[in-house]
Amino acid sequence: VHEYSIVQSLLNRVQDSLRGYDVRSVRRLRLRLGELSGVDAGLLRTAYDMCAPGSICDGAVLEIGRLACPACGGGVRLLEGDEIVLETIDLEVENV
Amino acid sequence: MCESCGCGDPHLVSVDVHDRVLSENDRQAGHNREHFAAAGVLAINLMGSPGSGKTAVLEATARRVAGRQKLGAIAGDLATDHDATRLQQAGVPSRSITTGNACHLDAAMVHHALHHMPWSDLDVLFIENVGNLVCPAVYDLGEHANVVALSVTEGEDKPLKYPVMFKKADLVLVTKVDLLPHLPGISVDRIWDALQRVMPEPRMLRFSSTTGEGLDEWAEWLAARRASLQHHEHR
Q1: B73 partner at 20 to 30 Å CA-CA among A70, B84, B110, B156?
Q2: ipTM exceeding 0.90, yes/no
Q3: Cα separation, B82 vs B61, whole angstroms
Q4: Which residues of B touch A (CB under 8 A)?
């Protein structure tokens, strides 16, 4: 179960990506897993639910695999590859 | 401005990342690869189940190329340094990585080990990964080639059950073939058939650390990989 290691890397990626933002809370992460990523979505979610509390992603929803299609708003199918990609982070920022 | 839903809440922001979650590991792996290339060291990531014979393959390799090629090894296990000790006894300078609970090595662990062993004058550095057919396939270590040891006792359908691992393999060593006379239900042809279904470029050697079968071809494969090192672009 390397999913815990993947979640640690994910939390680090979020931290790095939000440098410079005055983060109030992270709302949502969108992750894309290829069919050959070697990562199990269910186990990843379990690991995320354990590791997220107390981290920058405390309370944030993890969306796996399904991306909002910019043109139609529908879901996009998983790609057949080995990618584990953090696509977008939705967050709430402090008053400017 | 909220970019994702258009609700107009100025406090909601959507940040596009579109980057690999393991980009830090990939960066470290690239760094390791540069080190290996600069020193002319062929790095092999040797993977396989616990008990598939990874350490025995390296011991046999050391006997085969003794005095002609300088081998070194990094051996990963959850606990104990037994493998590194075995390899030291076989004349292969080795460093163990004890991963604790981690089921795989990552590029940073390998980099750290490199700082604690002499490796730059080696011809071939073997990275013996943690025994596991799942997790090690996900982490690039900076190796030039992935080799999987699959023993004949593990079952013919392992490549179909663990496709991610076998898709990443450049070569599969089917180990313990000396046991085949005792395993009437096991056919190497069926293992080859399974490998052909999952490996992009299927390559398999019948191997026995006991009888030495396959050792010559394995040594030739290593020598050829090493010779093409400077022309080889990984992935």
Answers
A1: B156
A2: no
A3: 18
A4: 4, 10-25, 102-104, 106, 134-135, 137-139, 163-165, 167
